[in-house]
Design goal:
single chain; alpha+beta; Bit1; five-stranded mixed beta sheet; 5 strands; globular
Length: about 120
């Protein structure tokens, strides 16, 4: 039996589940988080992650406070992190923090931070 690819690098996108955003809105916020975190990561991490196929995992949390806590933990570990603040043009009030992007970074390092979270 063939083994699948081994991904040593990934990005984690964490979305708030308490906001009751539509599927399309969650997808857009996830995309924003992925791009923002990518832009804050170092070139070496970007290249390694990109070469592997750009693995992403989308997770959920119950509220804003958890996003801030995860961001603080990730930054302390040297992992690029970016919060998404919505403009408020559609489903949520202006300034609402909707998502957090982490990485790309080593999968094992991200798992230490996000391993207890549920998939979206």
């Amino acid at each position: 039996m063939e083994k699948g690819p081994v991904f040593e690098w990934k990005q984690c996108i964490i979305v708030r589940s308490d906001l009751k955003m539509s599927c399309g809105k969650m997808c857009a916020q996830s995309a924003h988080a992925a791009i923002l975190a990518f832009e804050r990561s170092d070139v070496a991490s970007r290249r390694r992650w990109y070469a592997e196929g750009q693995k992403k995992v989308v997770l959920k949390v119950a509220g804003e406070r958890t996003l801030f806590e995860l961001k603080t933990i990730a930054e302390a570990a040297g992992i690029a992190a970016a919060l998404v603040q919505d403009a408020g043009m559609t489903e949520v009030p202006p300034g609402t923090i909707t998502a957090l992007g982490l990485g790309p970074a080593k999968s094992e390092d991200l798992d230490k931070i996000t391993g207890d979270l549920s998939l979206l």
